[in-house]
Amino acid sequence: MENSRRDFIKKSSLLGLGAIAASNMGMAASLLETNNHTPSFTLEPLPYPADALEPYIDSLTMQIHHGKHHNAYVTNLNAAIKDLNHFPDDLLEVFKTIQRYPASIRNNAGGHWNHTFFWNILRPGKENNQPVGNLANAIQASFGSFDNFKAAFKKEASGRFGSGWAWLVVDKKGKLQIVSTPNQDNPYMLKNSGKPVIGLDVWEHAYYLKYQNKRADYIDNFWAIVNWDAAEVHYNAK
Ligand code: MN3
User: Fold this and answer.
1) Ligand 1 center to residue 70 CA distance, Å?
2) This prediction's pTM
3) Cα separation, 235 vs 187, whole angstroms
């Protein structure tokens, strides 16, 4: 394997994004070792043009969400860790013991990881966008139907008060669960939660320009742009 490719995969796995990351040059975190052994995280480009998710998510929202909001999490994370003697390269290691870290690290590390994950479980919209493979079977078995699953996910995403995220997670036995988290927390920070399969940002900055107060419409339109192939990879990596 050529060095650049091996290095890329190493960086991708450090962010805990596994096979999806390794297959997509757009989502790796760059981790530059510095003298005091704290990494420096970078904002990678979106894996598609900013207007690729139209009409479900508008181009201006994507430009601001990625270029301003996500970028700020990266910048603020680097600022929050720069004077530490040590900080893990792998944010999943940080999330496991998140209570040891100050809010500035919790919020910005979560914000960086969550948004990187989010961009990569989205893709340009298509009609009859459906889960595939083992995940499709698991959703059927756990929820009775895809429609039932969507209703349960919508309830969780709608019910998250204020800013946060809704997630489909899978535990080691393949059991699916829908959870939500406040702020920039994610399932890796929760005790006894599984790994994210899909996640939806329900902060107003994710939808307000197009949907204003209508979070429910934003959630309904999310289903057209879920990258179920990426979700299947996450599910199988349980
Ligand atoms: Mn966001």
Assistant:
1) 7
2) 0.85
3) 14
Confidence check: pLDDT of 124 > 90: yes
The alpha carbon of 69 and the centre of ligand 1 are apart by a number of angstroms equal to 7
> What's the 141 CA to ligand 1 centre distance in angstroms?
31
Tell me the C-alpha distance between 73 and 70, whole Å. Answer: 5
DSSP string, 48-92: S-TTTTTTTS-HHHHHHIIIIIIHHHHHHHHHHHTT-S---S-HH
Domains annotated for the chain, with CATH where assigned, are: 2-120 (1.10.287.990), 133-236 (3.55.40.20)
pLDDT of residue 37: 76
Q: Compute the distance from residue 19 Cα to the ligand 1 centre, in Å.
A: 23
Q: Is the predicted pLDDT of residue 25 greater than 70, yes or no?
A: no
Question: How close is the Cα of 202 to the center of ligand 1, in Å?
Answer: 7
Tell me the pLDDT tens digit for each residue of 30-47: 445 445 578 999 999 999
Q: What is the mean pLDDT of the chain?
A: 88
CA 160 to ligand 1 centroid distance, Å: 14
Ligand 1 centroid to 172 CA: how many Å? 28
